[in-house]
Write a structure and sequence with these properties.
By secondary structure, the protein is mainly beta. The protein has one helix and 28 strands. The two termini are 39 Å apart. This is LAM_G_DOMAIN domain-containing protein.
């Protein structure tokens, strides 16, 4: 089945400690593959920047290597007692967790209300039983969370609706972009100008810019000062491009159509001190000047944007007239 939304799975007599095998062809770099809840305990099997992740409450288990998009992939997850084993393409990782076994109250392919991995799932087996289509129920409201395609001419921009983002350890942003130009603002979040007493004003922001068809992630958050990273792969004009970026206290990365680049640096922010300020897509308001370090970057983007997510949560965009 094609998965871009979420499907509820009938789960009679299942407990959270399961033996799961899934075969799929991934077509995006981020998103949930499987979600299970038992009482207060949660299991999420997902892709993060082309690495498979098993998340068990606050504990995470990562695959040792990234996986290729558009190719067959087999994932195995065995949770037995206090040990969890994640096997991806023949390589295994093991994690010890102290989470009690509990009856499953929710079981999904994908994850409702969050970003589900774009993929073709050919087989899902839980505790030796194949999950057939008749056991699946489509979560039909997922598409309405994204809204439609937002077309932007130079000088126009969009704003995120219902955006309330709390501080956390990592920021993950994803969107599909079809550029008609090679320059401009794709994502801009001016967070705060307030600093401790006695310090000079230094705008705090996170921005993703297109320059000569390549992505530049530029940020000034916490005490680390101004930093930036550039994608190795150029965006293709007139075509849809899968764009992802991540920012944490010690690492930043950009992915374009599955090709990723990352940078590590001494931790200066933990967690990211970001809250629900306005987020702009494709430009900024006329009365909102870009911080001076960004003066040489063009603000005017032309093209289209769709499927925007922040930390795997879809957000609707509204074009500002």
């Amino acid at each position: 089945m094609d998965v871009e939304q979420a499907y509820s799975i009938d789960h009679p007599n299942l407990n959270l400690h399961m033996n799961i095998s899934v075969k799929l062809v991934p077509h995006s770099s981020n998103g949930a593959i499987l979600y299970a809840r038992g009482g207060q305990n949660v299991l999420v099997l997902r892709m993060e920047m082309r690495r498979i992740v098993a998340e068990l409450n606050s504990k995470t288990l990562y695959s040792p290597r990234t996986v290729a998009l558009g190719k067959n992939l087999t994932i195995g997850l065995l949770w037995s007692g206090n040990m969890v084993s994640l096997r991806v393409a023949g390589s295994a990782r093991v994690l010890r967790v102290g989470i009690d076994d509990t009856p499953v109250s929710e079981l999904w392919i994908g994850r409702p209300g969050k970003l589900s991995l774009k993929s073709l799932v050919s087989e899902l087996v839980i505790n030796g039983q194949a999950i057939a289509g008749k056991k699946l129920t489509l979560f039909s409201s997922m598409r309405s969370l994204y809204g439609g395609v937002v077309e932007l001419n130079k000088g126009e921009y969009a704003q995120l609706l219902d955006f309330h983002q709390m501080p956390q350890e990592k920021l993950r942003v994803g969107m599909d972009v079809k550029p008609a130009s090679e320059e401009g603002v794709l994502f801009f979040w001016r967070l705060s100008d307030g600093l401790n007493e006695g310090q000079s004003s230094s705008p705090t922001f996170i921005g993703l810019f297109l320059r000569e068809a390549r992505l530049h992630l530029v940020w000034n958050v916490g005490s680390g000062g101004l930093r930036s990273i550039r994608s190795l792969t150029a965006l293709t004009r007139g075509s849809w491009n899968d764009v992802q970026f991540e920012l944490s206290s010690s690492e930043a990365s950009i992915s374009v159509n599955g090709s990723a680049v990352s940078s590590h640096f001494p931790a200066a922010i933990d967690p990211l001190p970001i809250t629900g300020e306005s987020v702009y897509i494709g430009g900024v308001p006329d009365d909102s000047n870009l911080p001076s370090p960004l003066g040489n970057l063009s603000r005017a983007f032309a093209g289209a944007v769709k499927r925007l997510t922040v930390n795997e949560t879809p957000f609707r965009m509204q074009k500002v007239e």
